[in-house]
Write a structure and sequence with these properties.
heterodimer; A: alpha+beta; five-stranded antiparallel sheet; 63% helix; B: mainly alpha; 3% strand
């Protein structure tokens, strides 16, 4: 390649680079924003029946989290000691409990604004700092995400400096210590039954 | 004066307490978790550099008080707060701003005690701006102009100087706390100008109004926890200690 050719090659490469980046998979912040928009979109569709709304919200939330990564972090040492059957059961129960928990929060949504403050990326992990602005206060919420084959997924949520995963690791750890892994699973199942009953009662 | 002497003697006694109380008990179960993380590779954004140690030697007593507080919440404090909601929200926010503005000295002195000059200046500016432009503190124009409130208290000041949180405590009515923060709360009363202006009964009354007002603005946080968590006592204990540890480190 002569010099001119090389020069043109470089020019073309650099002009195309941003184009390439635009077509690349969405970053963590974009992913989080997209999820929030989808959720608000569903909430603001008045025509939807409550059950359909719940169903769609549930799917959206389910797709935004990496429940396996969360379970590993929550169970820590206990994850290693658990059988694959126990692990799968735990992931399922955690996913369902979390969705119920999130649905509860989302359904009490009354036009609060969510401000995306900043994005920090370190290799395949990211932290997205947001502020929930209510009429009377600002609540800092940070989403910690990791990139897996399907894109960016949340593995921890930090509300007012309280890490959900750290809380559950210690809380669930205590329960396992006292009542064993099966005791924990039983407690989670019991809670879910109770939540389902309450939801049907409404 | 007698009160102040009492306070200082309590503080002195307290400062003699050995700091690394936590490591004693109940902490053993969490120690193993941080070391081996090959399964889930370390979190570069971890909120805790060292695993938080929670020490709850009087757990049965705490759980008893927690139970009583729960009943008080649902049958007394929450219904009162719900009643307060007939007052329009902006008025309740203003009431909160007003009381918060009056208690600026607590935050200011604690900023100064921690040698946080910039934060102290923020508190002074906030007080001046909100007392004037904000009409005697009813509004909070300072916050909308990048001067957010610096939530500092004596518990955080003690923590700033390396005092551990000590045993976890559930206080009657007041809820989650620990020895350090509990003593801090008492100390903060002496930094509160309202203590000196009002009679004891009036101060208490104002605190009750402030707390009920706060509860009326809250979006059923406690209800959500009780509804969704499999172990509300453990969840709240951990959340309290995490939140306080983060505030101390700020």
């Amino acid at each position: 390649m002569n010099r001119t050719a090389r020069f043109f090659f470089l020019v073309i490469a650099f002009t195309l680079l941003p184009v390439g980046l635009c077509f690349a998979a969405p970053g963590p912040m974009e992913t989080a924003q997209h999820t929030v928009e989808t959720v608000i979109g569903i909430l603001k569709t008045p025509a939807l029946a409550p059950e359909v709304k719940r169903e769609r919200l549930s799917t959206t939330i389910g797709n935004s989290f990496d429940f396996e990564a969360m379970s590993q972090r929550i169970l820590a040492q206990n994850w290693k000691n658990a059988s694959s059957k126990e692990r799968d059961r735990f992931i399922d129960l955690l996913a369902e409990l979390l969705q119920q928990n999130y649905l509860g929060h989302i359904e009490s949504y009354t036009n609060e604004k969510i401000e995306f403050v900043k994005e920090r990326i370190k290799r395949n992990k990211a932290a997205i700092d947001t502020l929930i602005l209510t009429k009377s206060k600002e609540i800092p919420v940070s989403y910690h995400m990791l990139q897996n084959g399907e894109g960016w997924k949340v593995y921890d949520v930090i509300i007012e400096s309280v890490s959900f995963v750290n809380n559950y690791r210690r809380t669930y750890g205590q329960i396992i210590k006292k009542e064993g892994f099966s005791g924990l699973l039983a407690k989670m199942e019991e809670k879910l039954t109770q939540l389902h009953q309450e939801n049907q009662g409404q | 004066m007698k009160n102040l002497l009492l306070l200082f003697s309590v503080l002195l006694l307290f400062s003699l307490l050995p700091t690394p109380l936590p490591a004693a008990e109940g902490a053993t179960d969490s120690a193993a978790t941080t070391a081996d993380d090959d399964l889930f590779s370390a979190d570069p954004f971890a909120t805790e550099e060292v695993e938080l140690q929670i020490y709850d030697p009087i757990e049965p007593v705490n759980r008893g008080i927690f139970w009583v507080n729960d009943k008080l919440y649902f049958y007394l404090f929450k219904p009162v707060a719900r009643g307060l909601r007939i007052v329009p929200e902006p008025a309740r926010v203003s009431l909160r701003n007003f009381i918060s503005n009056l208690t600026t000295p607590i935050r200011l002195i604690n900023c100064l005690l921690q040698l946080k000059g910039r934060d102290a200046a923020t508190e002074i500016t906030r007080f001046v701006v909100n007392s004037t432009v904000g009409i005697a503190g009813l509004f909070d124009p300072a916050s909308s102009n990048g001067l957010a409130k610096k939530e500092e208290d004596l518990g955080q000041t003690f923590g700033h100087y390396g005092l551990g949180s000590g045993p976890y405590l559930v206080l009657p009515i007041l809820g989650p706390s620990n020895l350090r923060d509990g003593v801090g709360r008492i100390g903060d009363l002496f930094l509160d100008p309202l203590t000196y202006i009002l009679t004891d009964a009036e101060t208490l009354g104002l605190k009750v109004v402030d707390a009920e007002n706060e509860l009326s603005l809250d979006k059923d946080t406690y209800e959500g926890i009780v509804k969704h968590e499999i172990a509300p006592y453990l969840f709240i204990r951990d959340a309290y200690e995490q939140n306080r540890a983060a505030k101390v480190n700020k």
